[in-house]
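Still learning folds. Look over my entry:

…
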Amino acid sequence: MDQLEALEAQSVFILREAYRSFKDLVMLWSIGKDSTVLLWLARKAFFGHVPLPLMHIDTSYKIPKMIEYRNRFALEWKLNLIVGQNAGALGTGETFPEGKVSRLQCCASLKSEALKHTLSGEWPRWVLDHARGDFVKEESGEPFTGVIVGVRADEEGSRSKERYFSPRDQHNEWDVGEQPPELWNQFKTDFAPGTHVRIHPLLDWTELNIWEYIERENIPIIDLYFDQGAGTRYRSLGCMPCTSPVDSTAKNVRDIIEELRSGKFSNIAERSGREQDKEDRSGLETLRRDGYM
């Protein structure tokens, strides 16, 4: 068994353990490479079928190609897709692009708060209707307390403090010091009532592992990750006003793998193009303690 096969087997095991252990379970899909690999692994874990809903938090500032990609594959792969949004903040213009709040405050509002209230069912959800090929508004829904997320420990400092099964309180807030030990593949999955649990099947994958797996499995990834001729590409995807491309001529998956193996980005953080990270000296930890993805 090679490294990718071992990582795949571990992730599939975590996905099946989560499905067995948690009743109210949902998987987040950001449309980026990591969460799309996670979706691919879920299809493998459950023999081509994804037996749990996917959730996307739409800030309304995503790159349009991302939404087109999301809708196309949700229909093609017959996914039960739920979309959440902070319609109140968007309606009053309480966002960074409108100049009313900082980037960090905008993230907290459009992502953390939207996620928290969409998970709880307090805010409306938009559910993909496959017969119509469009989204239908659902005013209320059952709460989700188990959330599968495609974060990796090597991606950003606060994420290295996570566990495979990471508890949050009833408000989705994270106490970093209260993480259960995970030794010798022994995982705690029985938590007190009211506990929210984040599940991280990709925790031990690296950026290089992700791209090697994409190549091996021929996973259809959004082309924003590739140079379209301008000598730049996105290394990490987010909202348009806060995400910048990197200098790169990588035009396909093989080029990206060679670029990563060469060490070109060895001293450059993967999320270096995410401007909101630079507003907080703790990286994303401030946002993540309050429920950010």
In short: The chain has a mean pLDDT of 88.
